[in-house]
């Protein structure tokens, strides 16, 4: 039997967490759960919830955590069902939460859910660590319309205030793996796979 695995990838804007999540998912048959992608897809559905999400996204607001959590659970259950064929060498071997949880409260909720699904003991958290100066340099070089310096600095402050408490929570639980995110993409991935070698080989 192939155990169902859970990997959480956290990091500042510009840390490359999306790229690393995609590389891991492709090589190891993981399904990526990205809150942004889930919300955008749900917003396209022309019902009460979809319209409500679209309205909040359009004005740049924050979606309530219970709504996001509901989407997570739906994807988690679907991925667990898709894991059944993995026991014979195909299908989904696990999930990657890319960029989530984003708050300590969300980390608590997710932990309770993983315990219910009997997955809490088969989880690892990657923290792609980069300095604020490196994040700023990368994001300015990217040149997106929402990558103005003042906006980037605000996102970095938000990460420190909101996401870092969740990172520290996982560190205290013994699930956290620190990754040097300032290396080239290939070197970051090499460090990740080396540190996850035993976990991925289960």
From TrEMBL:
Compartments in which it is found: Cytoplasm
Source organism superkingdom: Bacteria
Residues that coordinate or bind AMP: 35, 40, 61-63, 144, 155
Pathway(s) served: Purine metabolism; AMP biosynthesis via salvage pathway; AMP from ADP: step 1/1
GO biological process: AMP salvage
Subunit structure: Monomer.
Similarity remark: Belongs to the adenylate kinase family.
Function text: Catalyzes the reversible transfer of the terminal phosphate group between ATP and AMP. Plays an important role in cellular energy homeostasis and in adenine nucleotide metabolism.
Protein name: Adenylate kinase
Taxonomic placement: Bacteria, Candidatus Wildermuthiibacteriota
This protein's encoding gene: adk
């Amino acid at each position: 039997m192939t155990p169902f695995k859970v990997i959480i990838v956290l990091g500042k804007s510009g840390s490359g967490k999306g790229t690393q999540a995609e590389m891991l998912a492709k090589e190891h048959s993981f399904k990526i759960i990205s809150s942004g992608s889930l919300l955008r897809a749900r917003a396209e559905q022309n019902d009460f919830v979809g319209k409500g999400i679209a309205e909040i996204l359009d004005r740049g607001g924050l979606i309530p955590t219970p709504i996001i959590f509901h989407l997570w659970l739906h994807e988690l259950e679907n991925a667990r069902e898709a894991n059944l064929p993995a026991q014979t060498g195909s299908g989904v071997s696990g999930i990657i939460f890319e960029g989530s949880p984003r708050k300590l409260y969300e980390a608590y909720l997710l932990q309770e859910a993983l315990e219910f699904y009997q997955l809490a003991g088969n989880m690892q958290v990657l923290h792609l660590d980069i300095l604020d100066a490196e994040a700023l340099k990368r994001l300015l070089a990217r040149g997106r319309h929402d990558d103005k310096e003042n906006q980037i600095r605000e996102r970095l402050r938000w990460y420190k205030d909101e996401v870092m408490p969740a990172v520290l929570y996982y560190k205290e639980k013994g699930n956290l793996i620190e990754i040097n995110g300032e290396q080239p993409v290939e070197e970051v991935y090499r460090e990740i796979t080396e540190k996850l070698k035993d976990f991925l080989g289960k």
